[in-house]
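hey so i finally got around to running the thing on that chain from the lab meeting. sorry it took forever, my laptop kept dying and i had to restart like 3 times. anyway pasting the input first so we r on the same page abt which one it is
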Amino acid sequence: MAWIVLVLSGILEAVWATALGRSEGFTKLGPSVVFGVALILSMAGLAFAMRSLPIGTSYAVWVGIGAALTVGFAMATGSESSSLVKILLILGIVGCVVGLKALH
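ok and heres what got predicted. didnt touch it at all, straight out
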């Protein structure tokens, strides 16, 4: 159960990071609200997962999922440029996250 919550929390990290960028310094209400809700839920899920998973592994997986999804979404929507090297590096992050899960 902790792993499922951790993955969902990592997804929510990508949601709040994207919403933060779209809030334009908290001047847009919708993205600002999404940021706040996603941030709270993401942190709560991370805290829950850390009750039964190692802190370092939990944090690395949470950040890795959030970072990979955030940049992947930005590239997919055209708000960030994409390249083969960038895609390979993001896949490297995903591979490391999978490796941490496999080792646990």
